[in-house]
Amino acid sequence: MSVEIRVPQLPESVADATLVAWRKQPGQNVSRDENLADLETDKVVLEVPSPINGVLREIKVQSGTSVKSGDLLAVVEEAAAASPAAPTPAGTAKPDAAAAVSRTGPAARRVIEENQLSASAISGSGPRGRVTKTDAMAAAAGAPAAGAPAAAAPAAAPVPAPVVQGAAPRSGRVEQRVPMTRLRARIAERLIQAQATQALLTTFNEVDLGAVQELRARYKDSFEKKHGVKLGFMSFFVKAAVEGLKRFPVVNASVENNDIVYHEYFDIGVAVSTERGLMVPVLRDADGLTFAAIEQQIAAFATRARSGSITLEDLTGGTFSITNGGIFGSLMSTPIVNSPQSAILGMHKIQERPMAVKGEVAIRPMMYLALTYDHRIIDGREAVQFLVAVKDCLEDPGRMLLGV
Questions:
Q1: Cβ-proximal residues to 348 (8 Å cutoff; 6+ apart), any chain
Q2: Does 263 participate in catalysis according to the annotation?
Q3: CATH code at 190-402
Q4: Catalytic residue among 287, 375, 392, 396
């Protein structure tokens, strides 16, 4: 019995999706609930599982195609067994050849067919190993033409090119035009929207993280042993940010038409970098989370984001965001607000610097803090005082435990 594989019901806020890649090729065995293909939306990657055990008989939609809910993707034959020993009919590609052809574009396939090349023998330089026209042309240039004799007549001696004094030899100027992924296009749209609709301004401060480092060094082993997760800096920053938001509620607010919406809860977005782009999963009710719960949720978010299994619910909402450019070595930056939020806190590289401490010079682990905010509703006074509140909590972590 044949079973049709269709695009699953997409979330309400998602109109369509792009079929990024097939995980199985025609003729291959598939298991129940095994992922057959990846669908990319402007927010997350969705998997298309097989509903039965069987063999993938036919693919109806090629990679790179835009699809909607209910569109037919493929056909799976139930309870069938693959027969690798069976001869392949003339003109029908073997599974490996079919897989190779599926990762070539139309222009590349034309070059391959004209030069009678094997697609599976060409190494692709495009996204996900895709064979580009440049790859195919390079392979054609290095292969003998179809029907050419084994030994060719000696060619005439080439005329040497004129030598230009001081000019360096060029090895080739190759360009590739690659369309944005849906997520990257969505990120670009949101960033432009934020800068076009908000009056963004950034204020800075610096914090001495000596006390946090000392606390982490003292308890990191017992913390990890008890909770099964490392004690990082992000839990301290989330807790400090929540304390600052409680004191200055407008930083946790958002603009809706001509109204200011004050959120009496603290859903903190934590930026996570992935190969597909930046994602901001949300810690719900962060004021009620322990340090361990924050670290556990952040670790789970990072794992799901990088594996492509993060959900829309994980990314929806948020009243304030934190981003950590310091893990990449950034010393100072001006982060962009994640609209419709009104502010974002940027963390940076921890760097030892000479500081004046009680009239003496001491080497301290310092970090720059950056708060980008919407100046339409947040004045400089609130922004600066918010950063001072975060600084005070981090330089004396006991404040967060005592609520002072």
A1: 324, 325, 326, 330, 331, 332, 333, 367, 368, 369, 370
A2: no
A3: 3.30.559.10
A4: 375
